[in-house]
Please model this.
Amino acid sequence: MVAEGSAINEIREWQMTEIKVELTRRHALLAAGGAVAGASLGAPSIALAAAEKKGDAPPPVARYSVGDFEVTTLLDGAVNAQEPQGTFGMNVEPERFAEVSRENFIPADEFRMFFTPTLVNTGNELILFDTGNGEGARPARGNMRLALEHAGYTPEQVDIVVLTHMHPDHIGGLMEGGSPAFANARYVTGQKEYDFWSGMDPDANGVTKLVTSHVKPLAEKMTFLGSGDSVVSGVSAMGAFGHTPGHMVFMLENGGQQLVLAADTANHYVWSLARPEWEVRFDMDKEAAAATRKNVFGMLAADRIPFVGYHMPFPAVGYVETTDNGFHYVPSSYQLNL
Model:
C-alpha cells in the first residue's frame, strides 16, 4: 500500500542524513591525503564476533485492493514436510514427479506448506475467511491472531467469519480457551459442508471431533449458504466440491474488479494447480476435485482474475495461465496495489 505523507517525509529525511554523513566521511579521507590510504593497505582485517542467525522471517500480512474492498492475507504459519509424493501426485510415476519438480526448481523430497486466512474489509463489514490451525498448533502455525494484530485489527472487530470448509487448518482458530475467538462475529458456511460433518459420529475422526468442539457450539449464530448465495453485497459463494463434500470458494467483486478466494481448490502451486489431474491425499473425492481444479482455474485463466490460494506460497495471491499440461501459477507483484 502507498505510504502516508509523514512516512515518506521520514524516509527522505533519513536518506538526506545518510548522504550528509557519507560526504563528511569522504571529505575527511581526502583531507588526510595519501597517508590514510597508504596506512590502510597493509592493515590486517578485524573479525567481529559472529552474529546469531535468526532463521526465516516471513511477513505476517500482505494487503491488496479490489475496488474499494481492502483484502489482507494473514500468515497463520508454514511447515516443512518430507516425502511430498505421499501427499501430491499420488497417481504418477516417481520419475515423472521428480522431472516436474526439477523443471519448477523445487526439490522432489521436501516441501513447505503455507496456511493463509484472508481478511476482507468491505468498508461496512470486516470479514475473516477461515481461522487457521488454532492455538494448539504453535509455534510453526496457529498464529492467525498475531497476524490479525499485525494487520491492525483485533478479534473483537471481526463482524463475520466465513468457513470455506471444515478441515482442521481452517476451523482450528474458531475457539480459544474453550470460548469463541471472535466474540462479536456471526458465522457463514456451506449448508452441504455443515450437514456432512455435523451428521457424522462426533468420535469418528479428528475432523468430526473438532467440528463438535469448535463449530457446533456456534451453529445458532451461523448462516448456511448454497452455491450462488451471497455473504454480503459483492461477496458470493461458488460450489467447488471434491476436496470436501461442501468445499466452497468465494468471488469478491467491487468497483469493476474481481478476486477469488480459492481456499483448497489446489493445495500446491506445482503438484496440484499446475497438474490438476494429479491426485492429492487430502481430497476426499479425487475425481471431483480434479474436475473442480479444471473448472475454477480454467475460469480464472480465461477471465484473468487474480485469486488467493490458502496453501499457495505466502502472500498467496496470484494469477493463472493455461499451458499444454494444465496451468501455470503467476505470483502477483504490484498489480493489486496500483
Q: What stands out?
A: The CA atoms of residues 57 and 338 lie 26 Å apart. The radius of gyration is 24 Å. The chain has two domains: 5-40, 61-337.
